[in-house]
Structures are given as structure tokens and as C-alpha cells.
Amino acid sequence: MVNQVEEAFHKEGIEREITCEQAFALAEKYHIPKIEISRYCNQHKIKIRSCQLGCFR
Length: 57
Known about the structure:
The chain is mostly helical. The protein has helices at 2-12, 20-30, 34-43; strands spanning 17-19, 47-49. The protein is 56% helix and 11% strand.
């Protein structure tokens, strides 16, 4: 699953940060569970910005 997430991030040009909206769209577009997107961001120190729930700023 990590390779799929890594490939999706690479295709979209995401390296250092991602908005919550982008993360949700990425999960839908590539059929990746949102939790896997979150894990990948945490493991690779990719910041999640503009959280729709206000959890990340």
C-alpha cells in the first residue's frame, strides 16, 4: 500500500505539504484509504494544511 501512496504523491507532485481537501481527493482518485494517506504523511513529515475539521493547521 505504501508504494501506491508514494506513487500517487509523486504523480501529483506532493512533497512537503498537502491540504485536507487534496488528501481526500487523492484518496478517492487513487482508491487509497484516507488512513493510509495520513500514515504516509506522518511517516514522511508531510504537513496537512487547511484541515476540514480544524485538526491540522
